[in-house]
Specification:
It is a single chain. Helix content is 36%, strand content 18%. By secondary structure, it is an alpha/beta fold. It has a single domain (2-183), classed as Flavodoxin domain (Rossmann fold, 3-Layer(aba) Sandwich), CATH 3.40.50. Strands 1, 2, 3, 4, 5 and 6 form a 6-stranded parallel β-sheet that branches. The structure holds flavin mononucleotide. Flavin mononucleotide binds next to helix 1. Flavin mononucleotide (FMN) is lined by residues 9, 11, 14-17, 80-84, 123-128, 158, 160.
C-alpha cells in the first residue's frame, strides 16, 4: 500500500510532524510513504491561465506531478490551522486541483482518478474553529477521488498552546480509529 502525505507545516519537529510520525507507525510495515512538505516543495498556486479549459491536465510541471501520478491508495492531508484554514503552501497545492474540475466542467471528460481513502490531520493552538480547514480538505479529497468520513478519519489536536500534542490524551485512539477505518 502506498500513502501520499501532504504536510502543510513549516516546522520539521512541530506538532503536525509529531502526529504524522505516530500515524506512520500504525500502518503495516510494508507500507510505502511519500511525503511532500509543502513549505519546501515550491508548488505554485493556480494562476488561472486557463490552459485546463482547453487541454487535459495542468501545463505547469513541478512537484504537483506527485499527485497527478495517482499511484497511491491513501492520501493524508496534514496542516496546522492558520487563521482557521490550511497553511498557504498547502492551499497552493489544493488550488491546482482546479484542473480536475475543468476537465469535468469544460472538457466534459469523466473523472479518471483512482479511488482512494483520505485522512485529515489538523493541529491548532486553540483559537477559533477548524471548520474552514475541514471544508477545503473535503474539496481536495473530492477532487482527488478520496473517500473521506470526518467522523472516523480526522485526527485533531486543537489546543496545542495548552496541551502539547505529545500529551493530548485522545490522539492515539483517534489515530487507531482512522487507520482501522482505512485498512480494516
Ligand atoms: C500564522 C499563524 C496562524 C495561526 N492561526 C491559528 C488558528 O486560527 N487557530 C488555531 O487554533 N491555531 C492557530 N495557529 C497556531 C498553530 O496552528 C499551532 O501552533 C500548531 O500546533 C502548529 O503546528 P506545527 O507545529 O505542526 O506547525 C496559528 C499559527 C500561526 C503561525
Amino acid at each position: 500500500m502506498k500513502v501520499l502525505v501532504l504536510n502543510g507545516s513549516p516546522r520539521p519537529d512541530g506538532d503536525t510532524a509529531y502526529i504524522l510520525n505516530m500515524l506512520k507507525k500504525q500502518f503495516p510495515c510494508n507500507t510505502v510513504f511519500e511525503t511532500l512538505n509543502t513549505f519546501e516543495a515550491g508548488i505554485r498556486p493556480c494562476s488561472d491561465c486557463r490552459y485546463c479549459w482547453e487541454h487535459e491536465g495542468c501545463c505547469v510541471r513541478d512537484r504537483m506531478d506527485l499527485l497527478w501520478k495517482d499511484d497511491y491508495e491513501v492520501l493524508v492531508l496534514a496542516s496546522p490551522l492558520y487563521m482557521s484554514f490550511v497553511t498557504p503552501p498547502l492551499f497552493s497545492v489544493i488550488s491546482r486541483l482546479n484542473a480536475v474540475w475543468a476537465n469535468r466542467f469544460f472538457l466534459k471528460k469523466p473523472d479518471t482518478m483512482r479511488a482512494k481513502k483520505g485522512i485529515l490531520i489538523l493541529t491548532g493552538g486553540g483559537d477559533g474553529s477548524p471548520a474552514p480547514a475541514v471544508s477545503i480538505a473535503k474539496t481536495a479529497f473530492r477532487f482527488l477521488n478520496a473517500s473521506f468520513d470526518p467522523e472516523t478519519s480526522c485526527i485533531y489536536s486543537l489546543n496545542t498552546n495548552s496541551i502539547p500534542v505529545q500529551e493530548d490524551p485522545d490522539i492515539l485512539s483517534r489515530m487507531e480509529n482512522a487507520v482501522k477505518h482505512i485498512i480494516g
